[in-house]
Amino acid sequence: MIESRHGERALWQEVLLCAIGDALIGVPGYAAHDRAARLKATHEARDYILRPNRDFDLICNLAGVDPEATRERLSKQIAEAPPPEELMHDQARLMKVTAFGRTETVPEWSKITGLPIHVIRSRLALPGWTPERALKELAASRHSRDFHQAPSFRTRHTFSEEQ
Question: How confident is the model at residue 148 (pLDDT cuts 50, 70, 90)?
Fold first, then answer.
C-alpha cells in the first residue's frame, strides 16, 4: 500500500512538473502552424498556476506540496521568465544541455534517455535540478541504455558534472 501511495504521488508530481514547465518554458510543439496554439496554451498554463483554482490545489495536494506556497514561489519564477512570445522561437528548442561530460539538444537527450522532451525541459526549469538529475531521475531504471553520459543548454546555461 505504501508503494502504491508513493507511485500515485510521483504521478501527480509529474503532472505538476509538466504544468510548471509549460508555464516557465512554454508548451512544446514542433510545427510552425501550431505557434498560436502553443502561445495560447503557455498563457493558459501561467494562468492555471497564478490564479487560485481548485484543480491546481488538488494537484498540489496529491503531489504532496502546499498549493499556496507552490503558487507563491512559482509566481516569482513566472514573473522572471521570458514572455511566452519569446518562448515560441525555434531557438529555445535548439538549446543545448551539458551533463555527464556530453552536450546534446533536448530532443537528442530525449532519444538517448527515453524521457519525453517536455519532461526534460520542465525538470531543467526547476530550481535545484541539475541536468544530471533531470536526465536520469526516471531513466535510472532503464537498464538498456547508458545514462551516465549526459547534456547542457545553449549559451544561457552551462552546467558541469556533479562530483
Answer: very low
